[in-house]
Amino acid sequence: MENLKLEELFQEKLDREEKIEPKDWMPEKYRKHLIRQVSQHAHSEVIGMQPEGNWITRAPSLRHKVVLLAKIQDEAGHGLYLYSACETLGISRDELNEQLHTGKAKYSSIFNYPTLNWADIGAVGWLVDGAAIVNQVSLQRTSFGPYARGMVRICKEESFHQRQGYEIMAEMAMGSQEQKEMAQDALNRLWWPSLMMFGPHDADSPNSGNAVKWKIKRESNDELRQKFIDKTVDQAKVIGLSIPDPDLKWNEERGHYDFGEINWDEFYQVINGNGPNNVKRLAHHKRAHDEGEWVREAATAYARKQTIKKNVA
Ligand code: 3HC
What we know:
It is a single chain. It contains 13 helices and two strands. A hairpin with a 4-residue loop joins strand 1 and strand 2. It has a two-stranded antiparallel sheet. The model has no long low-confidence stretch (mean pLDDT about 95). It is an all-alpha fold. Helix 6 packs parallel to helix 8 and helix 6 (about 120-140) crosses helix 10 (about 220-240). The N and C termini lie far apart (about 50 Å). It has helices spanning about 1-15, 30-45, 50-55, 60-85, 95-100, 120-140, 145-175, 175-195, 210-215, 220-240, 265-275, 280-290, 295-310, and strands spanning about 250, 255-260. 3-hydroxybutanoyl-coenzyme A binds near residues 75, 135 and 206.
């Protein structure tokens, strides 16, 4: 009875658009749902540094290198905000890393695709960060306080990421014939995986029911995907690139673009560990984590020493 009453009061609080803070009572299922989503979001930010990091030493100019370095550094910060928000739900960073390393936790499918040339770095910034912005702007209104507040900060930085990618694509699309072909090829390879970032269709999304009820998700997978398509198709037109979808067509009645069917077999293959770079991404993360052990030990020892000094003083 007691729990039922508490759940009722909890839902009334959500329906009043009040934020849930870490110390508030929350149903265990809500807490677990958030740990799943926020941790996978954090993992995505950190793993997402790999495909771009691959091109820091190969950037075509010092300016491009500096901009890419700044973007990748931002992603690390986004991961830290999100891990910190997740830890307020009562799970440790070590547990989160262990869930990632054992495959128990996912990260965004898009990061399992390779970045083969500099145009891919443009396409990642333009499409992947563009899709992330659509999703994250919506998440600024999510019901869990620390997650919502982290999104506000992340969205500010994400806009710069999308612009730097779009600038690269524009430069190449309006450059030599070879550069234009590279930009179009990058768009052809990354367009559909970018649409998969929004998750399965609403009807096939096992988590969306609760996510919407608990106001974790404020718009559905399909609504956000449609928003992304509607704004990105016109951006492609401006720089003279074509979207690789023969079924793409403006639907006056709907006020949106109709588009072709996503390859869901590919999606489930990739999210279940069988994408082009899944093994490589996890092996790299594990190696970096192991090689970073001495930093964690030194930081912990230093913090312990500071505490002792403070207590003795
Ligand atoms: N990649 C990997 N897994 C995915 C996925 C994707 N693109 N889309 C869905 N899934 C998984 C879900 O995690 C879920 O599996 P799980 O139950 O084991 O976690 C399953 O597929 C079914 O999907 P649902 O729609 O039921 O799951 P959700 O309700 O969690 O919706 C989501 C999926 C839309 C990705 C939602 O979790 C979300 O909005 N997450 C926060 C945003 C996020 O994680 N973005 C990732 C990109 S971050 C990024 O791009 C960094 C930027 O700086 C470049």
